[in-house]
Amino acid sequence: MADPSLEFELIARLWRPLSNEHAGSFGLRDDVAQLPVSSKGFVVTADQVIEGTHFLPSDPLEWVGRRLVRRNASDLIAKGAHPVAAFLALAWPTGRSRHELTDFASGLGQTLASECANCPLMGGDTSTTHGPLVASLTLIGQPLAATGLPILRSGARVGDRLMLAGYVGDAHLGLQVRLERLASDGLAGAVAFAQAPAPPPLAFAALVAQYAKASLDVSDGLLADARHLAQASQVRATLELNSLPVSQEAQLWLAAQPDRISAQLALATGGEDYQPLMAIDPADAQSLTSAAKQLGVTITDIGSIEAGTGLGVTAGNQEIDLPNRLGWQIRAD
Amino acid sequence: MADPSLEFELIARLWRPLSNEHAGSFGLRDDVAQLPVSSKGFVVTADQVIEGTHFLPSDPLEWVGRRLVRRNASDLIAKGAHPVAAFLALAWPTGRSRHELTDFASGLGQTLASECANCPLMGGDTSTTHGPLVASLTLIGQPLAATGLPILRSGARVGDRLMLAGYVGDAHLGLQVRLERLASDGLAGAVAFAQAPAPPPLAFAALVAQYAKASLDVSDGLLADARHLAQASQVRATLELNSLPVSQEAQLWLAAQPDRISAQLALATGGEDYQPLMAIDPADAQSLTSAAKQLGVTITDIGSIEAGTGLGVTAGNQEIDLPNRLGWQIRAD
């Protein structure tokens, strides 16, 4: 077996600065970290990025670090929580250079600093692997809602509106270009987005906490995640494809597709959008939309919550058949 | 890229039972978990096992799951803390069978249940990889000390005794047999131990919290970790090799070695022993030893804390030269 302990040298050079000298990190010199005392409690998410699964071997490592943080921050934002502590487990390929490792740490650190309100890296483990890079981050957050609870998937009620922050589809289009399944013309923004899809700014978490009755981030695909929300809330969700908020690039791409509905479904099932999908009381819709606009976030009413179960999709108010694949799911063996 | 989302089916079948229906896990059906409110605060450790680095590809997967939990539990026990929540990030090789995955989950779950006081698995992520298995666990604990603080590496003072729980060296001997660098004769117990080295029972955490002024688990190697403790506490540690507590198998192995000191040093630098190494006020030594005995744990006085810096090693009270390698460390590039 290889020597697993790259750690001593690295902790000092790369990770310790990311601890922001937070007292509870003990300078990353001990075996555990201590969370600050919180009367509001803590929520926790743990997600990973795997070379060849979530990113391409040729991807710049700075973007891989960025992607890892955003993947987790997206979960906290959509639950109305602020990150307060991060823990990294890194399986670092023996064949990759120290320079790439510095790039990874830089992307991770900058994203914790600029997009997670200087959330400290408080611990973890760095070891070597003979295989592809695997990095997992545990992000611990504090819920912002007055209840002290995260906004769950299960709070949607009949009569709520389904509202989405930002756009969907760019991550899908960008990935298709990067996999050479689509020409890159006119999709430079989508390609950049797909390298490290970005959730809305952290301040949006407070709006989720204030206004959303149910919420989750769109990671598996809009249709799949809408169905998750409906299932958890024991209601039916119906989405209108023509309301799908997409970027200017995606609008132009859509306009050039021979089968518009199929193209819209591709965007609504591609996944990795990292935008909060929320169930909102209609009385709050305008307040949320206005407050989000102050943060530069577009809110779109994309559907309704009704009595029943499952998911419906309409195009121009005509119900259409659901695609076989609602998102980035595995098929059963 | 591969489909990263094995999750839906697996969560239900394998992981949900391990959540023990803990309210804050939301049945592993949401995107975050919520920790219970704790007036004592929380400590956190995150550690991983990597195929080819921390375990052999042929290792039974049940033992890999067990090893992962113990690696993390060892950190909490040595800090005087009890585990309360676990989060798993699993990069699962596409070529391994569902049967092996069930074995992994079984080892993980049984160890959380029987050795971590039914600590619930409250979240995480399972994705596929084209490379070797990588599993990381974040274990969140509650400190047991009256101060609400973990027992750090930095609390040792001149005059304290260095005391070790259990034995060292079996993990090293067992690994050497498994790598076919040693004959297996008489080392069956060491081989079994090395598959998933075990810390003392969880109840030992309360003794650490009550008696230890400084503590860490011996994972890098006894000499390396003694030096870590001395450095953090700004004192000198001196260990007596002839006081090294070893198992009966290791005693017989030692007796057969031509160079006893070299053989003792091999046991004291092999690592992965997962036994707490503690700085103890001499006035507390007997109380700790008696209380530990009630738990079936042997406590051995292996050295002293003195004024100065660094590490000294004696054999029969004669100071000997330190080996070049104190533990399982990487050399600088």
From TrEMBL, chains A, B:
Pfam families, A to Z: AIRS, AIRS_C
Domain of life: Bacteria
Reactions listed under catalytic activity: thiamine phosphate + ATP = thiamine diphosphate + ADP
Assigned EC number: 2.7.4.16
Domain PurM-like C-terminal: from-to ranges: 158-314
Domain called PurM-like N-terminal: residue spans: 30-141
Organism: Candidatus Phycosocius bacilliformis
Residues that, per the record, bind Mg(2+) 4: D31, T45, D75
Residues binding substrate: H54, E272, W328
Binding residues for Mg(2+) 3: D31, D75, D217
NCBIfam families in the record: thiL
Molecular function (Gene Ontology), one example: magnesium ion binding
Gene behind the chain: thiL
GO process terms (BP): thiamine biosynthetic process; thiamine diphosphate biosynthetic process
SUPFAM superfamilies in alphabetical order: PurM C-terminal domain-like, PurM N-terminal domain-like
Keyword terms, alphabetized: ATP-binding, Kinase, Magnesium, Metal-binding, Nucleotide-binding, Thiamine biosynthesis, Transferase
Further remark: Reaction mechanism of ThiL seems to utilize a direct, inline transfer of the gamma-phosphate of ATP to TMP rather than a phosphorylated enzyme intermediate.
Binding-site positions, Mg(2+) 1: D47, D125
Positions that bind Mg(2+) 2: D47, D75
Sites where the protein binds Mg(2+) 5: D220
EC category: transferase
Signal peptide extent: none
Pathway: Cofactor biosynthesis; thiamine diphosphate biosynthesis; thiamine diphosphate from thiamine phosphate: step 1/1
Protein's name in the database: Thiamine-monophosphate kinase
